[in-house]
Design a protein that fits this description.
3-stranded antiparallel beta sheet, 13 helices, about 50% helix
Length: about 375
């Protein structure tokens, strides 16, 4: 039976891959989705887990608390002011939150809804940038994003400058990217199973056992009556009995089983923290050395820097679209997230020491690109 099952499974898989090649559809190679037969919606359900949600909020908040600026680069000040006005009209907080969904699911398509401004000179600017469900899209065998459409098995290409497709660690073999929630799937599944068994255990052994003693000469009816009275007592906690009947309350003691459930849940939460945050100390409060704490927070900072690059790259692509539509193929400003002064202290100290040597002069362009200054904010001495 096992050989027949393997052969039929192989045949079905080959037929599916052949069909996908015909309709130019590259299936998501995610192993969890392929083994369970589920869609990417299963990962969206994982957000209902409190620890998963806490880790997601912790990861996003590390970047969302930072300010941003529009760096001039080689563009003129008029273009910079124009981009600043466009971005001020958008919900940048929500847009950045949606961009950071890409590491969780592997990819995140976002639709740019354009509008035409009023006035003597009309411009095309984004009215909204809206995240769309991943299951509305797929990748073809060449790795291009396509929109699913009824009656079109091979999908349709999105219009130019319409979809910002954010991918997290994509590759030629896997344009869908790597999903962090995929790494949490079994941890959440096992944890939910452990919690279910723990609730059943608590329901069974959490209440004290009521033990009734009767004399050997008691009849079956008397014994049955005593059992019914004790059952009622479990809810009402009141009983009236003859003096020759003894009733004891016995506590259920099974600490070993409780510790087992706790350890399982604790282990699963730690695995979830490592998958989403790359460390555990910021979500799992434990005793540890100062060196360990510093190491964990350094890792957290590196995760924030990685997310910064993802957000900056996406919004710089949007800026390039805006500039090209309204001013042609000219130099574009760039979106830059500003790290806190404490994070920039080492870089600032290094730049000041270099400048004080008098042997190397840092240019105005360097200060603009490194710290987000605009040209009209810097005067050469």
């Amino acid at each position: 039976m096992s050989k027949k099952y393997l052969i039929s499974d192989l045949v079905n898989r080959e037929n599916q891959e052949f069909l996908f090649r015909i309709i130019n559809h590259l299936p998501n190679p995610d192993r969890i989705l392929r083994k369970t037969g589920k869609t990417i919606e299963a990962y969206r359900d994982l957000k209902n887990d409190p620890h998963v949600w806490s880790c997601i909020q912790s990861r996003k908040s590390g970047l969302l608390g930072l300010e941003y600026t529009i760096a001039q680069n080689n563009s003129d000040s008029k273009t910079v002011k124009f981009i600043e006005e466009v971005f001020n009209s958008l919900d940048m907080f929500q847009i950045q939150r949606d961009i950071l969904e890409a590491p969780l699911f592997g990819y995140q398509p976002m639709e740019v809804i354009w509008k035409q401004t009023e006035g003597q000179r009309q411009y095309l600017v984004p009215k909204e940038v809206v995240a769309k469900p991943q299951e509305w899209f797929f990748f073809d065998i060449k790795g291009n994003l396509r929109f699913k459409k009824s009656g079109a098995p091979d999908g349709v290409n999105p219009p130019p400058m319409k979809i910002l497709n954010i991918q997290y660690e994509p590759s030629y073999l896997n344009p869908y990217g790597h999903s962090l929630l995929s790494k949490c799937y079994w941890s959440v599944t096992f944890k939910n199973g452990g919690i279910k068994f723990w609730v059943n255990f608590t329901e069974k052994y959490g209440m004290p056992l009521i033990l009734g003693h009767y004399n050997r000469g008691a009849t079956s009816d008397e014994i049955q009556k005593l059992a019914e009275v004790l059952a009622d007592m479990a809810e009402d906690s009141v009983i009236v009995s003859p003096s020759d009947i003894k009733i004891d309350m016995q506590e259920a003691v099974r600490f070993s089983s409780i510790s087992l459930y706790k350890e399982l849940i604790k282990f699963c939460n730690a695995e979830i923290s490592k998958a989403i945050l790359s460390q555990t100390l910021t979500t799992e409060i434990e005793m540890g050395s100062l060196a360990a704490s510093q190491t964990h927070f350094k890792i957290r900072r590196e995760v924030i820097l990685s997310d910064m690059k993802l957000v900056e790259r996406t919004l710089n692509k949007l800026i390039n679209w805006i500039v090209e539509l309204n001013f042609g193929r000219v130099s574009s400003p760039s979106f830059k997230i500003i790290l806190n002064d404490s994070d920039n202290s080492q870089k600032i100290e290094r730049d000041l020491k270099i400048s004080q040597t008098g042997k190397i002069k840092l240019t105005k362009k360097y200060w603009m690109n490194s710290y987000g200054f605009n040209e009209d904010e810097i005067e050469e001495i």
